[in-house]
Structure formats: structure tokens, C-alpha cells
Amino acid sequence: MSRARHGEAENPIVKVLRLHEGARLPCRMSDGASGWDLFACLAFPLRIEPGGRAVVPTGIALEIPVGLEGQVRPRSGLAARHGIGIPNAPGTIDSDYRGEVRVILANGGDASFEVRHGDRIAQLVIARVEPVSLRWADALDRTERGDGGFGHTGVGNPDEGPA
User: What is the domain count for the chain?
Assistant: First the structure.
């Protein structure tokens, strides 16, 4: 029986390969959650000192269908409580990558942080990627913003803060 409802296509399937016996299958913590929690797969605890970073293995590899990508994003609770983030967020997992999913964690807090086996360390969001073609151009269409850079999309002077 098809899971499709109201004319919707079935959800794409992302295959997960367990690379290490202790690896956990990513899971969503609620029906409305966009991200699937990724878990640390460690033989021993890993300490990240303030200002430091570490590459944390998950013990899994993914087979993401063509046309989709995996985005590895920080967990807001880790950021708020401990200053733990992902410096390259969102990290990208391409559809043709078959290696272990590993997460770069950075400690922006003021205390050391210990990652233990089974800790939820990041979120995995699966998103569509639109195929495009890039071509050289002699000119670009003009816009009201033009070449205004960082901070220039708001109203008023960007140096004055929110309007």
C-alpha cells in the first residue's frame, strides 16, 4: 500500500549504512521536526576545550538520492547552554558521498565540553537542490539593492541597527 496521500508522491528514501556497531539511526524528536538528530559514535569521550574544535564521527554513511542534499546543522540547545556550534554550518552532504558522516563541533563557550557516545550532536536536514547551469555574462540585470553588501538589505542605515 502506498504512503502517498492526496495526490502527493511518496517520500524519498535515504539509505543509512551502519559503519560501527554502536552507531544509532538518526531520529526526529517530533512529527513536526525538520531535522533528524545525529548521534556521536565514540569509543571514548572526547573533550573540546574553549576555542577548540573536533571532528566527531557518527558511525553512519548515507545514500542520499540525486536532487537532494544533506545539511548538517547545529543543535540550538548545545549552542545556548554550552556555546557548541558547527563552524561550517550548514555542512553539506552531497548525493554522491558515501563516506562516514562526521560533524565538526567548535566550542565557543568558556568551559571545556565533553562529547560522549550517543550524545545528540547535530541535526540532519534533507533538502532539494535545484539543478542549474552557470554561464559567463557580460552584464547582470540591475536591482534596487545593486551591489550593497553585508547589512544592506534592511531599511535605513545599516550602522544604526534595526529601524
Answer: 1
